[in-house]
Specification:
Elements lengths: L2 H29 L9 H34 L9 H30 L4 H29 L2
Length: 148
């Protein structure tokens, strides 16, 4: 298994942990206490704005720990060179991620258009962002395995 594949697997695990633990935290500390918060736009805005920096910081820390652990275990350096194949794989995975998020965005807006509760829209947006980033990492693994 190559370095890029390992890095994608670490990203998938990190994303799942961040979303899962953050969702559990928000549910237990806020939603379980006051179910009326589900209809509060301010609550959803704050929750989403806190999720973004938390996810970024955790991903950076996880990747640093992965790089250190990988270096200690395998005695290999992180590849410095990014070639055309790596760039092409990155672009293709970003395209897949983009289309999945756009589909999720349209579903979120559609949920409002048909009269669903506002929290459905926010949950759809957050879920589509998670699924889009997950699909991007899975696509990278597939492309590296298949050889593009």
């Amino acid at each position: 298994m190559g370095h890029h594949e390992k890095q994608s697997i670490v990203s998938i695990i990190g994303m799942a942990l961040v979303i899962g633990l953050y969702s559990l935290y928000v549910y237990r500390h806020y939603i379980q206490v006051d179910m009326e918060l589900l209809n509060d736009f301010r609550f959803w805005g704050k929750s989403f704005l806190y999720l973004v920096p938390v996810a970024i910081v955790v991903q950076v820390v996880i990747h640093i720990l992965f790089a250190i652990g990988n270096r200690i275990i395998t005695q290999e350096d992180i590849p410095d060179i990014t070639d055309e194949r790596d760039r092409l794989i990155e672009l293709k995975s970003i395209r897949i991620s983009h289309w999945i998020f756009i589909l999720g965005f349209m579903l979120a807006m559609g949920s409002l258009a048909v009269g669903m509760k506002p929290y459905i829209m926010f949950l759809t947006l957050i879920s589509s962002g998670f699924v889009a980033s997950l699909a991007s990492e899975v696509a990278k693994i597939i492309y590296y395995r298949r050889g593009l």
